[in-house]
Amino acid sequence: MSKTFTRNRQWLNPVEHEDTGAISWHVEGGVYEAEAEITIRDCDRQIKLDFGARDKKELNQRIKKLNMLIDALEDVKQNLGEAFKHYQSIKGR
Fold this sequence. Notes:
This protein is α+β, with helices and mostly antiparallel strands.
């Protein structure tokens, strides 16, 4: 018997914005594995990431995968502002 631990969706843009980006995720414990999936949608593009694990080794690999994604997102977040400042300085010439 499966048990859902979390299931959620959030829009990535304000309601009045023309883009239709969203992120959704769910985590379930089932008969065959612990299953987790993240779906990221932006305009007409979509990516699904799977994090299913059937044993401790796979769980550790999935946690490592999540940490790498979090690190990459944090890096983009930290550098986007600097890149925008640079863009504005070039644009203002």
